Structures are given as C-alpha cells and as structure tokens.
C-alpha cells in the first residue's frame, strides 16, 4: 500500500463513528504532501499501528508506552515508508517480539488523528495513525522493547478500565466486538 493506494483506500473508507469520519478528508489531504511520511514534518505525519488481537477475540495486546505513559496499541513512525501496513507489522514485531503475527485484512481497520505533546525540542504535533487488524498467538512469549514500560494481553472487558476514556482504543474495541471477520 503506497501513497496512491493509501489515498484510494482512504477515499473509499467509511465508518459509522462520527469522530473518525470527521478527519478522513484531512488524511486524504495529507497524502498529497511530499513529507507526509517523515517525522520531520512537524505539523503532523503518518504513523502505522497494529490492533493486535488473539484468535478468539477475547484479548488485545497493548503496550504501556514509555514516552506517553499510556496504554496503547503497538505502532510507530513511517520514517519514509509509504506502506503503512508494512510499518504496522514491523513495529508490532519490534515492540512485541511476536513471530505469530498474521494480517487479518490488509484494508484499513481504523484511523485516528491525535496530538502528541511536546518532548524536548520536538514541538506538539499530530499523528495521522492508520491502523490494521492483526492476529497473534496469545501464548507466545512477549519481549518488551525499550519503547515500552510493559506489554500485556488485556482482556476486552478490562481495556476501558486500563485506557480510560481513550476514544480511539474504545472504538477499535467496539469494531472488534462487532466485526464479522471469521475467527
């Protein structure tokens, strides 16, 4: 999925969630910017994330992000790679150590635009996060990367308590619960 196919997929992307629908056009517009896939674009840039679930759809793998001090899905900067599915898979492997990762659907699962606070000389900016649904074996050992304080399979019914009012996490959880994707 390069820049052109990302744009095409975003143009076709539909969601019943008003918040998510409200920024689809911003994502499409960003695909026209030559620097959209590099973190040096300080107004905001693309990132790729993996919403990792177990095969029976009872748990999601979350990381306690070291810099943000919040529980989140795994993912990261594109660093010039326009294939955000590759970015999501690479970040998921690096941040979890899992080898059983399997793409459930190569289409966009979710998108979210969120503010990243200023850190050192890097000013506050937006991440335009494109998320993909990934499956993994829940019993495979996890390896915590230096980007995380912790990494854990969280039961679906405990995610809201752990993540608070993070609307994008709760939206992905709801999408997974309502998903018609075969187990």
From TrEMBL:
<dbReference type="Pfam" id="PF00293">
    <property type="entry name" value="NUDIX"/>
</dbReference>
<feature type="domain" description="Nudix hydrolase">
    <location>
        <begin position="43"/>
        <end position="176"/>
    </location>
</feature>
<dbReference type="InterPro" id="IPR015797">
    <property type="entry name" value="NUDIX_hydrolase-like_dom_sf"/>
</dbReference>
<dbReference type="InterPro" id="IPR000086">
    <property type="entry name" value="NUDIX_hydrolase_dom"/>
</dbReference>
<protein>
    <recommendedName>
        <fullName>Nudix hydrolase domain-containing protein</fullName>
    </recommendedName>
</protein>
């Amino acid at each position: 999925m390069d820049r052109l196919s990302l744009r095409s997929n975003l143009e076709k992307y539909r969601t019943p969630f008003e918040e998510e629908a409200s920024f689809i056009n911003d994502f499409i517009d960003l695909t026209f910017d030559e620097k959209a896939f590099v973190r040096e674009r300080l107004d905001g840039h693309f990132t790729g994330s993996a919403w990792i679930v177990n095969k029976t759809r009872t748990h999601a793998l979350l990381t306690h992000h070291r810099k943000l001090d919040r529980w989140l899905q795994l993912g990261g900067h594109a660093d010039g790679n326009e294939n955000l599915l590759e970015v999501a898979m690479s970040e998921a492997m690096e941040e979890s150590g899992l080898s059983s990762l399997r793409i459930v659907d190569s289409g966009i699962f979710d998108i979210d635009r969120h503010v990243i606070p200023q850190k050192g000389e890097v000013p506050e900016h937006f991440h335009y996060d494109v998320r993909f649904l990934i499956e993994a074996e829940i019993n495979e050992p996890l390896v915590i990367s230096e980007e995380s304080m912790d990494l854990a399979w969280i039961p679906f019914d405990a995610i809201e308590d752990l993540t608070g009012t993070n609307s994008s996490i709760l939206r992905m959880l709801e999408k997974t619960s309502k998903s018609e994707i075969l187990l």
